[in-house]
Amino acid sequence: MSKILIAFYSRNGSTEALAKAVAEGAQAAGAEVRLRRARELVSEEVMKAAPGWLENARRMNAAYEAPTTADAEWADGIILGTPTRFGSVTSELKAWIDGLGGLWAKGALNGKAGSAFSSTSTAHGGNEATILGLYPPLAHLGLVIVPPGYADPVMYAAGTPYGATSISGQNATPPTDADLAAARFQGRRVAEVAAVLAPLRG
């Protein structure tokens, strides 16, 4: 059994839905899971300019704790989830990652499993670029990057070999069943690899 941290940011709920599916997959593999949502960096006035942002933030912040460095140290595997922002990771999730410097300095994350998933509102809005953009921080922190690849038939129907994805469109369409199946497989795969890696860390 492994311990999996899923640290994500979501604004309209698409990435949240993927994160929950990733958690289901990890739990199906016997993992203990912590699901955590990164917090906003902007004021409520800024959030009010985007319909639904403030309301969704309040709902999700009530449902999920914020990720901490203690969560990262606890975990055998860390899976990062984010919407795209101009083709890249959100500042909210990146701010949490940037706060892991103390763990990096003492090598506390070396040898743990790491993975990433993403959602976007447009068909070519940067899902793959965003996931690949999270690989360098995972590598710097010493994690062993675990992509889903095409190791399960569900990956031929949705997602990417780099990580689960979804496209919400302009109406915040939820992830499809195929998207969620890919996310569940990613969670299971990371949990299984993390369980193998954990004893090797000594």
TrEMBL record:
InterPro entries: Flavodoxin/NO_synth, Flavoprotein-like_sf, Flavoprotein_WrbA-like, FMN_Rdtase-like_dom. Keywords: Flavoprotein, FMN, Oxidoreductase. GO terms for molecular function: FMN binding; NAD(P)H dehydrogenase (quinone) activity. One of its GO terms (cellular component) is membrane. Residues 4-190 form the Flavodoxin-like domain. SUPFAM superfamilies: Flavoproteins. Belongs to the WrbA family. This is NAD(P)H:quinone oxidoreductase, type IV. The lineage of its organism: Bacteria, Pseudomonadati, Pseudomonadota, Alphaproteobacteria, Sphingomonadales.
